[in-house]
């Protein structure tokens, strides 16, 4: 039963559900009926639902039928009226169709016109849009065209400015166009191209100024020379003003001109062509020769591109390399002055450019960089000059080099570079200059001395006399009183040497010019160099002349006279140096001239040479001696060789009457030199005769030969007594032969008792006879007597007096040996 109830409840629920679904179907839009129907099919009672749906449809059909029946008459009436309306509608349709046809026919032209108007309106709108777009694009294209034109004409800095405007101002407005994108992509390439081209221009500029540095330096040094000449004129004439600009003004004006030059200048050449100008025309400024615009443009370009530091480093690196090339001197620089000049011109040109860059750019180069380069240049230049100047042997070239170095230093000093080391180096070159002068004057003095005739200078008129006196400071009242023709006591080399000494002093003075030395320093330099000339150069030349093999006594006598007068002229040389340096000789540190010592030494050497030559001549005569040491009887006169020797000595000492007796007082009497020469000759003759008598090869000697020898000695004594040279007191000259005289008297007079009795006493008659000498001579005589006695033993009875004499000789010889032994003990 319960099951029946449950089935009944389920049937009721199903019926209610079906009712709800039907209501939804009736009230729901057809598009949304799907879910409702799906719920029916999801259930299990769709058969029952179909029954219900069929029942509901039948109910609705009945209701529709009822409703239609109720409104049928009205429907019929409506149909009738509708049929009437259909006829009218057909008429209206025909009328509308006809009207439409007529309207279409009439509106065709209007439609065509409207289409044309539409196209015009479209074109007008397109043109307007195009004009607007072109208005934006044309400036971009114009700027790009301008950029390409500037690039083509190598106006790189303006091109870079144009590129910036194009990139930052114009391209952003039209950035969506394809050609703009292409331009944007090309901008870095264009920048790089500008960078490379400007760097190429800079390289061309650097190469150009490297090649033309000597021209720039030459112009700068000409400017410095002009300025120095102008300063000299102003110093001589202080009131004169105006005219040319000073060097600083020229530099300043030149700097101003370059500063006012726009970096956009069309000129890209590094060096402007300048024709050679005459000496009288004003030299253009060094900076006027150079167009620095490539440097400025490149600097600006790299600054704008943010690569200024790269540019500065590149520029400095390249200029350092060029500096090293400029500072490398050519190997043959020392051969000509032009080699030095070109070397200096290049250095000056280099630093003129760098100095200008320093003052016309901000930071491209700085003072520390310039100072570093200058220090390197200074050290290398000084080293090169030391090396190459040492090869120079021409004093004229050294002097020209000095003037060139001074001009070089003055030029760079005018640009603010310190040049003290160059002037210090010039003092070193001064020593070398002095050495080259000394070498040159060695040749000059040698030529003068070789070409001199060593004879007093003859003058035949007043004009010649004054000419000689004008060349050499000589005063002699007695010579002036003598009538013409007359002779100066000295030969031609005296005034020539004196003038050459003055020329040497002038040459030394030339080197000291423009070295900024004080008068005292100049005076000291001249005196030291002159002392070297006198003590070394002239002294050596005189010594060489004196020591020549072919020099004669006459020449030696004249040399003594000449050196005496040159010695007296030293005080005039002192005055000459004082006049040109304005330094009094009494100044504390003033160097004295050593001329007096030089000429005294030369004179002493000449005197010694005279003594030596006389002795050599005497020796040559003595070699002609041919004594017969075994002669039993003497000849009737002195030997021929000795007579010739005495004749030579007489003629020789006659020449000595021209010798001065004193340095200060000129005398025609023979002086100390002549007396010394005569005494020396007599002593040498005496000594040589003694050696001739005692030489070991002569083992035997007869009294007859000794008496012949005595005749020769008497001839010598006669010569001494005749006074060949005035000034000897009493028998002074005869004392030269006293040793020979006493020895010969002892043997000829055979006065052995007196000799042996008085030996050793101051009043001894034979005080100058040495026992050894006497013994040697006695033994030679003894050998002859022994040989004679042997012959007598063979052929005749030995004579008693000869035996006695032999015994006496033996006794005397024994006593002489005793004296010799006692003297040694």
TrEMBL record:
<dbReference type="InterPro" id="IPR042044">
    <property type="entry name" value="EXOC6PINT-1/Sec15/Tip20_C_dom2"/>
</dbReference>
<dbReference type="InterPro" id="IPR042045">
    <property type="entry name" value="EXOC6/Sec15_C_dom1"/>
</dbReference>
<dbReference type="GO" id="GO:0005886">
    <property type="term" value="C:plasma membrane"/>
</dbReference>
<keyword id="KW-0175">Coiled coil</keyword>
<dbReference type="InterPro" id="IPR046361">
    <property type="entry name" value="EXOC6/Sec15_C"/>
</dbReference>
<dbReference type="GO" id="GO:0006886">
    <property type="term" value="P:intracellular protein transport"/>
</dbReference>
<dbReference type="InterPro" id="IPR048359">
    <property type="entry name" value="EXOC6_Sec15_N"/>
</dbReference>
<dbReference type="Pfam" id="PF20651">
    <property type="entry name" value="EXOC6_Sec15_N"/>
</dbReference>
<keyword id="KW-0813">Transport</keyword>
<dbReference type="GO" id="GO:0000145">
    <property type="term" value="C:exocyst"/>
</dbReference>
<feature type="domain" description="Exocyst complex subunit EXOC6/Sec15 C-terminal">
    <location>
        <begin position="421"/>
        <end position="780"/>
    </location>
</feature>
<dbReference type="GO" id="GO:0090522">
    <property type="term" value="P:vesicle tethering involved in exocytosis"/>
</dbReference>
<comment type="function">
    <text>Component of the exocyst complex involved in the docking of exocytic vesicles with fusion sites on the plasma membrane.</text>
</comment>
<dbReference type="Pfam" id="PF04091">
    <property type="entry name" value="Sec15_C"/>
</dbReference>
<feature type="coiled-coil region">
    <location>
        <begin position="50"/>
        <end position="120"/>
    </location>
</feature>
<keyword id="KW-0268">Exocytosis</keyword>
<comment type="similarity">
    <text>Belongs to the SEC15 family.</text>
</comment>
<feature type="region of interest" description="Disordered">
    <location>
        <begin position="234"/>
        <end position="270"/>
    </location>
</feature>
<feature type="domain" description="Exocyst complex component EXOC6/Sec15 N-terminal">
    <location>
        <begin position="52"/>
        <end position="221"/>
    </location>
</feature>
<protein>
    <recommendedName>
        <fullName>Exocyst complex component</fullName>
    </recommendedName>
</protein>
<dbReference type="InterPro" id="IPR007225">
    <property type="entry name" value="EXOC6/Sec15"/>
</dbReference>
<feature type="compositionally biased region" description="Polar residues">
    <location>
        <begin position="259"/>
        <end position="268"/>
    </location>
</feature>
<dbReference type="GO" id="GO:0006893">
    <property type="term" value="P:Golgi to plasma membrane transport"/>
</dbReference>
